[in-house]
Amino acid sequence: MKALSFPKSHRLLRPADYGKVFNDVQIKVPHRNFLILATPNQLGHARIGLIFSKKNLKLAVQRNRIKRQVRESFRQQHHLPEMDIVLLGRQGLKDLDNRAIQKALSDLWRRLNKKHQLSQTTEAPPADLSDRR
């Protein structure tokens, strides 16, 4: 049963957690209906925070449906890097059915992993220039 859980430790709960991501965005993954902002953490697992405004999804039913889909998709991603992730909703989400949302989210997770791997390979340790003559 543990594999099916979504504990508080995997969620961004406090405004300071969100602020950390917004102030130090290392990876952006845009999509027509979503935007992922992410920054590394030292917790050993990914955490997610969700932002869906009333401007884009007027009814609470719509916002809650999208949030359920996102949480379920995130819960099933066992290969995400150690990051704090904020997922923002954009306009047009209310017109998508559940299958389209799941397809978009799986594409977003794949692209997030790819960008994280690219950022890890491009980060080379600083060279010690004092030994050069």
TrEMBL record:
Which Gene Ontology molecular-function terms are recorded? ribonuclease P activity
Enzyme Commission (EC) number:
3.1.26.5
**Is RNA-binding one of the keywords UniProt gives this record?**
yes
The record, for InterPro entries, names:
Ribosomal_Su5_D2-typ_SF, Ribsml_uS5_D2-typ_fold_subgr, RNase_P, RNase_P_CS
Keywords assigned: Endonuclease, Hydrolase, Nuclease, RNA-binding, tRNA processing
Q: Which PROSITE patterns does the annotation name?
A: RIBONUCLEASE_P
Top EC group: hydrolase
Family designation: Belongs to the RnpA family.
Task: State how it assembles.
Answer: Consists of a catalytic RNA component (M1 or rnpB) and a protein subunit.
Q: Which PANTHER family match?
A: RIBONUCLEASE P PROTEIN COMPONENT
Q: What does this protein do?
A: RNaseP catalyzes the removal of the 5'-leader sequence from pre-tRNA to produce the mature 5'-terminus. It can also cleave other RNA substrates such as 4.5S RNA. The protein component plays an auxiliary but essential role in vivo by binding to the 5'-leader sequence and broadening the substrate specificity of the ribozyme.
Protein's name according to its UniProt entry: Ribonuclease P protein component
